[in-house]
Amino acid sequence: MNGSFLRTAVRCGAGGCALLALIAGAGAAIQATAGNAAGSLDPLDPLSRKAAVVPNAPASVLIAATRADQRVIVAGENGIVLFSDDAAAHWQQAAVPVSVTLTAVSFADAERGWAVGHSGVVLATTDGGRTWTRQLDGRAIAGLPEEAAAGADDGDPPLLPNAGDPLLDVLFLDANEGFAIGAFGLFLHTADGGAHWTRASARLPNPDGNHLYGIRLIGDRLYVVGERGAVFVSSDRGARFEALKTPYEGSFFGVAGNADGAVVVFGLQGRAFVSTDHGVHWNDVGGDGSSAWTGGATLDDGRMVLVGQAGDVRLQQAAGGRFDGWTGKQPPLSAVAAGPDGRLVAVGPRGVHVIETAAATQGSEQP
User: Fold this and answer.
1) pTM score of the predicted model
2) Of 107, 165, 150, 175, nearest to 337 (Cα)?
3) What is the full per-residue pLDDT of the chain (367 aa) written as tens digits?
4) SS3 state of residue 61
5) Pair 126, 172: CB distance under 8 Å
6) Beta partners for 243?
C-alpha cells in the first residue's frame, strides 16, 4: 500500500459520536521498516516508543478498567497504564514498551494480565501490571496461522488484517487460554498465554466482518458482541459460536453478566438488554437515555452496572433485579470496574472517577 491509510471504528448515537478506534500511519514507513534487513523501527513509531511518564496521569484520557484481586488497573491513550492498591486513592504508572492507545485489559489472576490496543498490539504482565512486555502487534497478525471454518471447502477466505487495525477487547479464561478481538471481525486465540496466537475468525458466523467490541465469560458461556447488533455465544469455551437475536440491530459495545448466567448487552442509542435464559428472551433495561452505553461491570455481590458516554449510570438494586438510573450525571465515561471496597472505579476522557454506590440516589423506575 502506498501513501497513508486511515481506518476508523466510531461509536455514534443520538448524543453524538465518541471515537472508539482511530488508526493512522504511513504505508511508506511500514514498507521501509519491512525492507530494513536489520529490522530497526522508526523511532517515531508508537510501537517502538515507551509510554512517557506523565504528571497527573490519573487525569489522562483513559479507556479501560479492570480489577486483579485487590488491585485496580486502568489504561488508555499514549500507552498509559496505571494501578492502585488502595481503592483508587493513589495511583502509580506502569512501565509500558509502547505508546499506542490501549483499549482493554484482562487478568487471569493477581499477577498475570494482558492488554490490547491500536496497531494490533498485545501486551502481557507477570507482576500485576507494574511492567509490561509486547507479545504481538499488527505487523505480525497477518502472518499468523488462520483457522479454516469447520466443514468449509470453498468460499472467500477472511480478509487479511491491516497492520493498523485495532484490537478492542481481550479476555483470558485462565493463565493459558485467551482471546483478543477487534476491528473487521478480527478474532485471535492463544492456548499458551500469548506465546503463540492463531487467527480464528472463522469460529464466529460473521461473514461481513463486523467489528467485534466486547468479549466476556458469563457462567459457562462465552459471549462476543459487535456492530450491527452482533451477539455471539459459545458453550464450549470459544471453540465455536452461534449468533443470537436481540431486539436491536445497532452496535453493542460491551457485555457483562453474573455467575447465575444473567447477561446484559449494551451499546448505541442508550440501548441495553438483559437475558436470564442464555439469550432466548431479552428485556430492555437501557432506560430513557439516548447516548451510548460504553462500559459495564459486575459487582462482588452479583449486581451489574452500566456507564455511558453522557455520564449516565445504571445499577441493579439486587442481583437479577431491575436496573435503576442515578439522578445527576458523572463526566463522560468509557469503562467501569468494581473496586475492592464496594465503590465503582470508572474512567473516561477526563481520567479516573470514583463513584460511591452507597450514596447514590435512584431516579428511574425502569424494570
Assistant:
1) 0.87
2) 107
3) 333 223 333 333 333 333 343 333 323 233 333 333 333 446 678 999 999 999 999 999 999 999 999 999 999 999 999 999 999 999 999 999 999 999 999 999 999 999 999 999 999 999 999 999 999 999 999 999 999 876 444 556 667 788 999 999 999 999 999 999 999 999 999 999 999 999 999 999 999 999 999 999 999 999 999 999 999 999 999 999 999 999 999 999 999 999 889 999 999 999 999 999 999 999 999 987 778 999 999 999 999 999 999 999 999 987 777 888 876 678 999 999 999 998 999 999 999 999 987 655 454 433 3
4) coil
5) no
6) 232
- Domain parsing of the chain, residue ranges: 4-27+57-146+168-355
Q: Which amino acid is at 22?
A: L
Residues 6+ apart with CB under 8 A from 236: none
What's the rounded Cα separation, in Å, for the pair 362 and 303?
A: 15
Given CA atoms 117, 120, 122, 123 in this order, what sign does their dihedral have?
A: negative
The x, y and z cell numbers of residue 39, run together, are 529490522
Burial of 42 (0-12, 13-18, 19+ CB in 10 A): middle
Contact 226, 249 (CB under 8 A): no
Contact 336, 314 (CB under 8 A): no
H/E run at residue 141: helix 138-141
Site of grid cell 452461534: 242
- Give the containing element (helix H, strand E) for 272: strand 272-275
Maximum distance among all Cα pairs of the chain, rounded to whole angstroms: 64
> Looking at domain 4-27+57-146+168-355, what is its CATH homologous superfamily?
YVTN repeat-like/Quinoprotein amine dehydrogenase (2.130.10.10)
